Amino acid sequence: MTMLPASARPGITGLDHIGLYVQSLDDSAEQFARLGFLLTPLSQHSSAEAGTGEVILRGTANRCAMLADGYIELVGIVDPARDLRDVANGLKRYEGMHIMAYGVDDPSQAMTHMRRNGFTPRLGDLRRHVDTPEGQRTARFTQVRVPRDEMPDGLVMCLRQETPELLWQPRYLTHPNGAIALEAVVLAVENIAETASRYKRYFGTRPTPIPGGLRFQLPQGSLQLLEPSAIAREFNQIAPPLLPFPAAAIVSVASLAKTESLLVSNRVEYEKRRDALHIPPRSAGNMGLIFKAKTNGHD
């Protein structure tokens, strides 16, 4: 990767997770189970009130596919009477990937970096109850979020996992499809240069050219910016409803042959293209999903 000086970087460690807003958590969970993911139990979101610290339940919940590196979060509405943040509005725009979250070791450093680079970040506290073998515990996350008008590609954030041991429980890390890591997010954009300029400021990293676009390589995972013609060429079953649009995710697996066998057994629609298995959005929460064999190189 091409890095700027340390003083010009926010300390991003890589792709932490992506989040899909879905109309039905039950239907989407069934869909991802057919894709071979082992999902965590339902977990309702909450946040701490500023000043009092009182934990208030939100109206949204998730189920997650936890990978050795990163995870996929399915987010749905479970109580419309409670705070839904931007999930309801997001679903009015489209169902699919909205959240692109990047890990950081030091949220304060990330806040300072964002301010110095023209963003107006806000620190957030997110919590949710998680089942563990020892009983229910509370997972905590410190978020650094920027306004959507500054990063219009979705809900883009940095965060630090304060209780990673509660999320990455060994019992949830082995998937029937052999999934190992969240390797890349593919973002369809109209103006490559403008988008790259924003992410150069955001990541403190220079992109490298790829066919039809640019890639920001992170310590773990990458962000790919592709123009619409490249999306049509590389992912011909993806039709972005708007631009910019988080179009696809690339997930590495231990054995592509075993993953393909599972897809066939579960009667999941897919297309085999070169060294990858492409799942159409209608079969993966309205997000393109690409399975690739794990390698030491970049996707």
From TrEMBL:
Which SUPFAM superfamilies does the record cross-reference, listed alphabetically? Answer: Glyoxalase/Bleomycin resistance protein/Dihydroxybiphenyl dioxygenase
Q: Where is the VOC domain?
A: 14-162
PROSITE patterns per record: VOC
Q: What InterPro entries would the database entry show?
A: Glyas_Bleomycin-R_OHBP_Dase, Glyoxalase-like_dom, VOC_core
Stored Pfam families: Glyoxalase_3 (PF13468)
Report the transmembrane regions from the record. Answer: none
What is the protein name for this chain?
VOC family protein
Q: Which organism is it from?
A: Allopusillimonas soli
Name the lineage. Bacteria, Pseudomonadati, Pseudomonadota, Betaproteobacteria, Burkholderiales
